[in-house]
Specification:
Number of helices: 7
Strand content: under 5%
Shape: globular
Structural class: mainly alpha
Length: 142
């Protein structure tokens, strides 16, 4: 069990990378008709909610993938999937297996987990945080 605890940050990072990549691929497929194209009709530019959902998928998934603004991006992605589940799927049946909302439910909970636990290793968050902390001010040296 100790070896599992030592690898926790790496496993979390791999989870973040895979979930972010899959989510970004959904957005790219919908917006740019690649990777098998959109599931359903391609939305018009800025059409609610389809185009905006795909934009959140592409941008939010990319941010989570690279670990940049990971927690806020994951929270927005989680919320967008909660919206998708309750607005688009829940009215058809109670359980995700019945209403076709498995992907929305899994993405929602996956992103909530990432938002709660953080990015793990191999993330751009510490680099961005360090740059923000020093800003353009010179760093004092002795």
């Amino acid at each position: 069990m100790e070896s599992l605890e030592k690898s926790r940050e790496y496993v979390l990072a791999l989870f973040r990378i895979v979930v972010g990549l899959m989510f970004a691929c959904h957005g790219a497929a919908t917006l740019f008709d690649v990777l098998g194209g959109p599931h359903g009709a391609k939305p018009e530019i800025a059409a609610w909610p389809g185009w905006w959902a795909a934009a959140i998928q592409l941008v939010g998934g990319g941010l989570v993938l690279f670990g940049a603004a990971t927690r806020p991006a994951a929270l927005v992605c989680s919320g967008s999937m909660a919206y998708a589940y309750f607005v688009e799927h829940q009215s058809d049946a109670l359980f995700p297996i019945e209403n076709g909302g498995e992907a929305a439910a899994m993405f929602c909970w996956s992103f909530l987990l990432i938002a709660a636990l953080g990015p793990g290793r191999w993330s751009l968050d510490p680099v961005v945080r360090l740059g923000r902390r020093t800003g353009n001010r010179p760093v004092a040296t002795r």
